[in-house]
Specification:
Elements (H helix, E strand, L loop, with lengths): L3 H11 L6 H7 L11 H12 L6 E5 L5 H16 L2 E6 L2 H14 L4 E4 L2 E3 L1 H5 L5 E4 H4 L11 E6 L5 H8 L2 E4 L3 H16 L3 H9 L5 E4 L1 H6 L1 H13 L4 H8 L7 E5 L2 E5 L9 H5 L9 E7 L14 E4 L4 E3 L4 E4 L16 E4 L5
Parallel strand pairs: 1-11, 1-12, 2-5, 2-6, 3-5, 6-11
Antiparallel strand pairs: 3-4, 7-10, 8-9, 9-10, 12-13, 14-15
Helix pairs in contact: 2-4, 3-4, 9-12
């Protein structure tokens, strides 16, 4: 027999889907010691709700103001509006557990996925609530979410997400492995021809601060052999298979760095996902999701990755436009079919940074 809390969550999932985050919170009558939203939380949620028809939104709050609860209510609001699947993405497994604890204390319907293990998966499958997970689980070529039509993404601690996500696209070949030695030997003629013998010798001696860049034209000239080396290396390293799935068809577009520590092949810093998002990546291939990012105030977002975002809101209620050339999502409230993936659900909006 299900307990009272479980019955409440099931009844909530089957009842009318509320969209305003304040109303969602008030409907959660069994929310334990949490009697009401803090003023900064209420202000941030109201500001976000007023901006929800704008392009993807950055929510900024001071440390300690409870942005996790705000993010969870935003995720639930997107889930209810689209009748689709929403991911709340954290940087570590520990933060996944902490966020799940906050959701549990509010009696929100949720699921979580971390360490290749599901908790309350049925809530995600039935679109009753968001799935709390981490960047590593979402952004890899074998993601469990790769064939799911994701309606919304909430990036927690967005100011650290750029390095976390880019790392999932980066193939690393450790020094001391046969593959690293073969790569160094493959490009040695180029390094010598460009008068970089000294740096090459220092790498061989193990100097940690020497880096050698392999330009794209040299990658193209040696593409067949480099691919052979990397494919053999990936077969010996299961972790490398996740990044290899992304970079294998775009080696000439990547930044290749050779050092005494490793060979690193990564997307270019400017637009690390230009080839993959939202076009041909296994994840998010059906429609481009709505994105909300949570970050502390006074900490800047990394521009190269989040160059598609246009709206910022904060707990003081202010809303500013930033960056240009963003996509605008027309939600069901604006006349689009809930959860639809038609092209006309998206329109191009040019904004001017203030």
């Amino acid at each position: 027999m299900r307990n009272v809390s479980e019955r409440h969550q099931i009844n909530l999932a089957q009842s009318e889907r509320l969209v305003h985050p304040h109303q969602i919170f008030e409907r959660l009558t069994l929310r334990g010691p949490i009697s009401s939203l803090w003023s900064p939380q209420a202000e941030a949620l109201q500001s976000w709700h007023e901006s929800r028809l704008n392009p993807d939104v950055v929510v900024q709050m001071n440390t300690g103001e409870g942005k996790t609860r705000v993010g969870l209510l935003i995720a639930q609001s997107i889930t209810n509006e689209t009748l689709g699947k929403t991911l709340y993405v954290c940087s570590t497994n520990q933060l996944v557990e902490q966020t799940a604890g906050v959701a549990e204390s509010c009696k929100l319907s949720y699921s979580s996925y971390a360490g290749r293990s599901w908790n309350k998966r049925e809530n995600f499958q039935s679109n009753a609530g968001p799935c709390i997970t981490n960047y590593a689980a979402v952004f890899n070529s074998r993601s469990v979410f790769r064939e799911i039509n994701v309606s919304g993404l909430i990036f927690d601690d967005a100011h650290v997400s750029h390095s976390a996500i880019r790392g999932q696209f980066t193939l690393k070949v450790p020094a001391g492995t046969p593959a690293h030695v073969e790569i160094v030997n493959l490009f040695t003629p180029f390094f010598r021809a460009t008068h970089q013998q000294t740096d090459l010798s220092e790498i061989a001696e193990g100097h940690p601060f020497v880096l050698l860049y392999v330009p794209p034209f040299e990658i193209i000239s040696n593409a067949a052999r480099l691919r052979e080396i990397l494919e053999n290396a990936v077969q010996l390293n299961d972790e490398a298979k996740f990044a290899w799935g992304y970079v294998k068809d775009h080696l000439s577009c990547c930044t290749t760095i050779v050092s005494a520590h490793q060979t690193e092949i990564a997307p270019p810093e400017g637009k690390p996902f230009a080839k993959h998002w939202p076009g041909d990546t296994p994840l998010l291939q059906l429609q481009r999701p709505y994105i909300a990012l949570l970050r502390p105030r006074s900490i800047c977002l990394p521009h190269p990755f989040f160059n598609c975002l246009s709206t910022e809101v904060c707990s003081g209620g202010r809303c500013t436009e930033s960056q240009c050339g963003s996509f605008r999502y027309r939600s069901s409230a604006a006349g689009a079919p809930p959860g639809g993936n038609e092209d006309n659900n998206w329109e191009r909006k040019e904004t001017t940074r203030l």
